Amino acid sequence: MPGRTERRDTHAGSWYTDVEPTLDRELEGWLNAVPNAIEGVGDIPHPGARVIIAPHAGYSYSGPPAAWAYKALNVSKAYLDRKRVFILGPSHHHYFEACAVSPFTTYATPLGSLIIDKEINERLLATGAFTTMKPQVDEDEHSIEMHLPYVYKVLERHFGKGATFPKIVPILVGAIDAQQESSFGKLLRPYLEDEENCFVISSDFCHWGTRFAYTYYLPNSSSGTQMGYSLKSNNCPHPPSNPPIWSSIETLDKLAIESIETGNHSSFTTYLQRTKNTVCGRHPIGVIMAALQGEEGNAPLGTFKFIRYEQSSKCFTLRDSSVSYASAFAVLS
Q1: What values do phi and psi take at 45, rounded to 5?
Q2: Are the C-beta atoms of residues 287 and 313 closer than 8 Å to each other?
């Protein structure tokens, strides 16, 4: 590893195929399956849609729903000498309380390599707030890598095969609190205001089940998030049906989605405090919401519109588990 400048695509061949023609066909198929116009939204990509939220699970689960976000991403202002794609992902394996940039100069994908904007990395490091990932931490993490083939594919669709693409700025977001989210959001806001930049926010939604230590349940009689409780063997002798667990999970996630769509950073953090929903990308989402909102009380630069929601499976009993996936885009003014 010493002296190596390219991050390997360490999850290729397991989380997604490492066969270039197969991966290319899969991405094309998923993108083509998304309609060119969505009811209540209109034609996509919408002008100004420079920020997306998309999932990062194995492609058998996250590939189809992520396509909705990437179909909505507008890269039409992608000027090669200045354009960048920022990719913010949560840290699943390494605990730290900051945000970190990559130590590598390129990221490998089965489709080709993406170049990291080291100049922007240096600017972020110069603020004193950002750190640098260790190479092993970077290669162990999947939340950023799972977006690289999609980023490559969308850029290739716009620029053409064999073209030089805009650079990327991968940022790993650690276990930061709401105040830190606001601070990092403030540092990233100038890049967000630049219409030549795009942002990809990596997040799955509810991880439900005993293996995730999260069995929160919202009965139909509940009014919002205050009335929920955790299902346990002693309070759940029979599978609940009013509603079934999978429907409660959907309601729980829809409340998260509604809080994000408000554009109010504190609305989302308050929701998380009440429900403890296991949205693994909650901190990257918090950072981008804070960046969009700017100073508390200001009208945000843009707000998210969610256009796809799926679950890996439907839960009916405490023996079941699932992960939720949601895709969204934000149009910036």
Answers
A1: -75, 145
A2: no
